[in-house]
C-alpha cells in the first residue's frame, strides 16, 4: 500500500510503515501501514483492544515499535522520545484525560507554548524584558486557544475543577497551543453528551481548516463517518481495511470484526443499517 | 483576588515578584500562621474569603516577613537567640531548595542533606587547608554541588516515585559515610576552624538573612518561570508533559541541580555559622526535618515552606522548658498540625490571578 518513501519532498505528512509491536509474546500491532496527508482527517477504528492506542503511542514516541517505521515528512522518527516527536510538530490528546489537574487551566494550555517561548534561568531570576515578553505571549496564546475551543468555564482556577466536557476542550486547546502540523486525538468524544459531541465535530473541522492534519481514534461511528476522509480499521492488531468511509462501511471483513463471525445474515444487515444510519444521523 | 498567589506564573504585574518574595521569619515572633487558619472554602476558592486567607494572599506578606527577620535582633540579641535565628534562616534556605525538588517537581528526595554536606565540606576543606577566605571557595562550591547534583541525579532520576525515594536515601547515606571515612574531611571528628563570613554574630545574621532572602526570591521566581511550569507539569503528569515537548529528564535534572545549589550554599553558611562541621550534622534525620518543613508549610508554596522551616527549626527551642519531653511534644504538635491542616500551613494556590 505505502511504498517506502525516500524523498522528503513528496513524502506524506505522516507515514506508518509495517508497524509491529509486541509485549512479550502478545502481538499488539501486527503490520500496520497507513499514511496521512497534509490537512487530512484519518480515523483509526476497531474493537476494543485492537491496538489503536498502541499505534498512537508508537507514533508519538511513547512506545518503541518492535519493527517498522514511523516517518514524518519522510524523516524517520521511530524511537525518538515523545518530547522530540512533539518538537517536530506532532501533538496528541489522551484517551483518559491527562490534564495537569492542580494547575490553572491557563497553565495547562501554556504547556503547549513551552517550546516556543525563549527564556533561560537568568531571564527568570532577573525578570528581564525577554522573560516578561515570553510570559505575556504564552498567556495570550493560551487565551487564544481557549477561545478557539470555546471554553466556557473558569480559566484561572485549577483544571480539575472544570466539568468533564470542558476538561476535554482544555486538553485539545493544550495540544493546539503546540501549533502542530499533525494532531492525534484519542477518543475526543468519549463520555460526551449529544450536544458536546456535535461541538467536538465542529471543532475538529475548524482545526482542519487551520491546515492541521488529524488522526482520530473514535468509537462514535456517526462522528467518524461524518468527519473522516479516510478510515483505517484495526482488528487484533491487524489492519483489515483502509479507505474512504463509504467503502469501509461496506467491507464485509469490517462488519464481521464488529459483530463476530457467527452472526447470521439478518444481524449483519441490521448492523449495516445502523452503521449507515449513524452516518445519516450526523449528516 | 488581592494579588497573585505565589504560584501565579504570569509574572505580569511590575511588582509581581514582591508577592512571593517571602523571607525568613524569626524565632522571637513565632510564626505568622499560629492559630489554625480556616479551611479552604472550596476547590475553586469561591465564596467569601476569610481575613486570614486574604492576608495569606497579600503580596506584601514576603516583605513583611523580611522586615520581621531584620528587626528581630532589636528585640532579642543574646548570642543564643542570634544563633537560633541564624540556624533558622539557613534552614529556610534548605527548605526553599528542597521545595524546588519535592514541591515543584514532585521528586521525593530523602537524601537532600547530601548537598548540604557537599557544600559545607567543600568550603570547609578549601578554607581550612588552603587558608582561603570563605567567599573565595564559592566558585568551587558551585562547581562541586552542580557535579554532585548531576552525578546523583543521572541514575536516580530515571526512576519514579518510591524507587527514587529509596535511591536518594541511599545517596544521602553514601555522602555521610564517605565524609566519615576520608582523611581530607577529617573523618568522624570533621573539620573545625572554618573562618566566618563576617566579623560578629550580628553582622553574620544579617548577611545570612539577605542571602537566604535572595535564595527564597530566586526559588520563587524560578517556580513561576517557564522552567518552573515545566517542573509542575512533570509533577502533575510526566507523560502529558512529554507529549507537550517537555524533555522530562532534563527538566527533572534542572530541578535536582537547582536543589543541589541551594543546599550547597546553605551548607557554606552552616559551616561559617558553626565554624565546625562533622558527619553527625548530616544524618538522615536532617533530610527528614527539611522534608517535614516543606510538607508542613505546604508543598510547592514558597511562603508556606518558609513558615514551615521556621517552625521546624525554632519549635524545639521554644519547647526547651519541657526538657526530656520536648521532642515528644514536638512530634505531637506536628501530628496535630498535619491532621488539622493536611495541605500545609500556607498551601500553594492552584488559582492564578486574572490580569
UniProtKB/TrEMBL annotation, chain A:
Gene3D superfamilies: P-loop containing nucleotide triphosphate hydrolases. SMART domains: AAA. Keywords: ATP-binding, Nucleotide-binding, Transport. Residues 14-261 form the ABC transporter domain. It comes from the Bacteria. Pfam families: ABC_tran, BCA_ABC_TP_C. GO terms for molecular function: ATP binding. Signal peptide: none annotated. This is ABC transporter ATP-binding protein.
